[in-house]
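Reviewer has doubts. Consider these tokens.
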Amino acid sequence: MMIPQKPTLLSITERLRSISIFEDVEQEVLEAVTEHIKIKKYRKNRYIYQLGDPSNELHFLMEGNLKIGTNSRSGKEVIKSVIYPEAMFGEMALFGEKLRENFAYCLENDTIIFEIDADRFRQIMFAYPELSSNVINILGKKLHFAEKRIESLVFKDARERIIDFLKDNAKNFGKQIGYEMLFKHCLTQQDIANFTGTSRQTVTSVLNDLKKSNQIYFKRKSILIRNMTTLS
């Protein structure tokens, strides 16, 4: 649903600057994008889009957490990525996707999305090559991450995949406290299982084992890693 209090164009522009693809672009690029931004607010357990929906918008997550995923032939949920604030998603709308091949699902209340028509954003990219370059760089990083995940699923056992999940999230989204790393999340243990290609029981067992050996400490919405280099 739309946010009732419409922010000013200036405040939207300032928020866009926090997103990596806009960090080093000229002010006129931000203003061109801001002019066409729609702001939406979602509750927990709502879909931004579902499998098969028309793919005609590009999205930026400003508040809240999302999971991006699909369903296997057996109907099992497969989580491809977890999206944290100030990130772009739904970018395949820029590159010929007609219908959504993934879903985007809210993990928190008060999730705020900036949305722009994909055709309009593509026009802005063509007009400003520096923006196109930034988008390509982000897509390259996402492709590299996807390749690492595939390698992990093929060559590593369940415990190693779960530990990779902990390290990656702590490194990319955590906060360092001395030698320790803390990251907050909104994932259930079933979500972690769906992301790592394991079972909920395996996730529970590995987390409890790591906690017992004092390598991590976890609560429902946070995980503290005692030492990133020795976690195993």
Summary: The longest strand covers residues 57-63.
